[in-house]
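User: Can you help me understand a structure? I only have the sequence.
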Amino acid sequence: MPKKAMPKKFAGKSTKLGGGGRFAMLSSKVKAGEKKEGKSEKTAERIAGAVAAKVWQTKYGKAKMEKMSIAGKKRASAKK
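Assistant: Let's start by predicting it. Here is the structure, written out as tokens:
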């Protein structure tokens, strides 16, 4: 079975590395799971952000996460 292609954007964010789309995709999946377990919207969102951050920091390291975050913020402010 072929792997499903990743969309170019998710929640208005680019799915390219550093674009924030992959992070948003992961956190939305975690959030849906937490809500299914009966957690409130606010709690599920907080947990999802923490889990997604931990996964990405484990994969890329804290320094690279900071660089991607800074680059994304610069890119977002340049578009305004």
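Now, to help you interpret it: The mean pLDDT is 87. Residues 20-79 form one domain. Let me know which part you'd like to focus on.
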